[in-house]
Amino acid sequence: MKTLEDLKALREKLKGDIKVRQKQGTKIIIGMGTCCIAAGAREVMSAVLDELAVRKLNDVQVQQTGCIGMCEKEVLLDVIRPDEPRITYGNVKPADVKRIIADHVVNGRIIEDLVVGKIEQEG
Fold first, then answer.
1. C-alpha distances in Å from residue 112, one per residue of 21, 53, 89, 115
2. Which of 15, 37, 101, 117 is the most buried (most CB within 10 A)?
């Protein structure tokens, strides 16, 4: 960064990045506690990021969280679509990610055989 214009351009870019992170659109939350990582959460996270990139789904937020105490169900992955229940998928493997993205994130169809929890949105 050499000029004031470079600094201003960086500021505008970062403001845009912050807006994307604060959007109220679809969110995917992946457990990344030590128990989650031992169960394969890094590989699931990579598969999610790769699939979103392939599909050019730039408006989907991906977040990580720590352990929530359901270690026997790891890897846990939540999908939160606006005005729909929060769905927690359990025992997620990288091979499940394409199906979760295509069926649930894109088309709104919950994958019942992977569901371990459902939280209705308050509203």
1. 28, 25, 9, 5
2. 101
Q: Residue for token digits 């999908």?
A: 79
In 3-state terms, what secondary structure has residue 48? helix
pLDDT tens digits, residue range 35-93? 999 999 999 999 999 999 999 998 999 999 998 889 999 999 999 999 999 999 999 99
Is residue 63 in a domain? Answer: yes
Asked whether the beta carbons of 61 and 28 are under 8 A apart, the reply is: yes
Hey, how many other C-beta atoms are within 10 angstroms of the C-beta on 1? Answer: 8
Res 21 pLDDT > 70? no
Q: Which domain does 33 fall in, by range? A: 24-119
- Report the percentage of the chain scoring pLDDT > 70: 90
Domain membership of residue 80 (yes or no) is yes
- Total count of domains within the chain: 1
> Could you give the CA distance from residue 21 to residue 27 in angstroms, rounded to a whole number?
10
